[in-house]
Amino acid sequence: MHAPRRFPRPELTAGDRRITVMAAFGAAVLCAAIQIVLHLAGTHSRGPGSAAELAANLLLDASLPLVVRFPRTVGALAVAVTTALSLGGTLAPEVMAPRLAPVAAPLVVSFLVFVLPWRQAFAFAAVLALPAVPIWAPSWGSLYVALSATALPALGVLYLKVRSELVRSLRERAELADSERALLAERAERAERQRLAADLHDIVTHHVTEIVLHADALRVTTADSDARTAAEQIRRAGTRTLTELRDLMRVTTTGARPVPAERPDDDTGGDLAALAAADRAVLNVEGDPATVPAVVARAVYRVVQESLTNARKHAPGAPVTVTVVYPGDRAEVEVRNAPPLRAADPALTSAGTGMGLTGLKRRVTLLGGTFNAGDDGHGGFTVGASIPASTGARR
Q1: Residue boundaries of the structural domains of the chain
Q2: pLDDT, averaged across the chain
Q3: DSSP secondary structure of 79-133
């Protein structure tokens, strides 16, 4: 047999505790001031009973700021003080007849209902109401006072507490619903992007495959050596395009990191030396590019290619230095150009999509690397990328 499910009671936050303590302290000071004023303004004789009554009420007032930390202790003290004053007024009315208004009792009940679970709080309120009647000498007037001092404050605070928790719960549900909607929208957008990427892959793969097949057929059938050479270059470029497209789709769709693989020497996107020589850039290469996966080597080539294109467009005539390091587990790339020697051509700088560096950053990030580009502080521009290479199994 399953036990009944119990829902956890919401705990007070640090802010609620701080506000409750401040409110309890203010209520304690106000109650003490009222009782002292009533005691001093009273027309009865101020004997030992009157002083004891005032001391008991002040003790209860002083305990109010502790209601958050020690609620049950404060509740027990309220019951004890009320019982003592009621018994004293009944057994020795000429010495200790309660004369001060019991203003602390409603406050104690209110704070207990706010701090404790409602069953424990109402148990304290019921116990507190018994000596307040008192039950050994009941009357309609004493019953009205007892209920006004215990039941009404407890019900009022319970209503406010339940309403506050309901509003908080509705707010949290609304925030959770907003988060879920945002997450679903993000998932839908990601799924749509993956679908479009798959469609693009299928379309490009189909047409590039046709180009490769026709180039291979031309290379075999033609007698012209120049045509055969051009067909071979077209075939190799198409093959590299298909390989790079396949690797990028694998990374973007599965999130898998690239791993080293056996590949032909030219499966790196292009010749870095020829690329740097075409732009008269100084090329420094350390390490063996064969130690990194083909997709990483091609990413290095694309970073250098796009950086040299930007330098040619925005810093004409500026010396450019390209540094590529293959330490074995990652590839480090840096392309640095000095300040331009002449003004850039507006027609040249306005050409293109303006998404070159953004595309490079996305490519490097997808491969698990880091990318940065910006002014070097001396009028030049620096593009840097660091791309890790997994040492997992070969694909």
Answers
A1: 14-149, 187-254, 272-388
A2: 75
A3: HHHHHHHHHHHHH-TTT----S---HHHHHHHHHHHHS-HHHHHHHHHHHHHHHT
Q: Is 146 exposed, middle or buried (0-12, 13-18, 19+ CB in 10 A)?
A: buried
- What is the separation of C-alpha 16 from the centre of its chain, rounded to a whole number of angstroms? 23
- Find how far residue 303's CA is from the centre of its chain: 33
The C-alpha atoms of residue 162 and residue 170 are separated, in whole angstroms, by 12
CATH topology assigned to domain 272-388 = Heat Shock Protein 90 (3.30.565)
Asked whether the beta carbons of 312 and 279 are under 8 A apart, the reply is yes
- At 378, the amino acid letter reads H
Q: Which strands, in side-by-side order, build the sheet including 282-287?
A: 282-287, 320-326, 330-337, 381-388, 370-375
Model confidence pLDDT, tens digit, residues 152-176: 777 777 788 788 888 888 888 999 8
pTM listed for this prediction: 0.42
pLDDT tens, position by position, 181-195: 888 888 888 777 777
